[in-house]
Specification:
Layout: E1 2-4, E2 10-12, E3 35-38, E4 43-48, E5 51-56, E6 60-63
Antiparallel strand pairs: 1-2, 3-6, 4-5
Length: 70
């Protein structure tokens, strides 16, 4: 997570690589940080609140904190 705290400093919390060889469903959740999703290959279908996105190779999506995404 990268966030701005009261002292105007950025914080980084974690990152990772996710790879699926089959169907994958993003968990329905609400988190306290931004989530950046970068698609290296294939297609991902992700929703945030009332918006739905179809992502493919080289697409980037930033999910906002405190919003339900799935």
């Amino acid at each position: 997570m990268i966030s701005i705290n009261p002292e105007n400093k950025l914080q980084y919390v974690s990152s990772g690589l996710f790879k699926s060889d089959g169907e994958w469903i993003h968990p329905r959740r609400e988190i306290d940080s931004y989530e950046i999703i970068f698609i290296t290959e294939g297609t991902a279908y992700i929703g945030e609140e009332d918006n739905e996105f179809t992502l493919s190779e080289n697409d980037i999506l930033i999910l906002e904190p405190k919003k339900i995404h799935f």
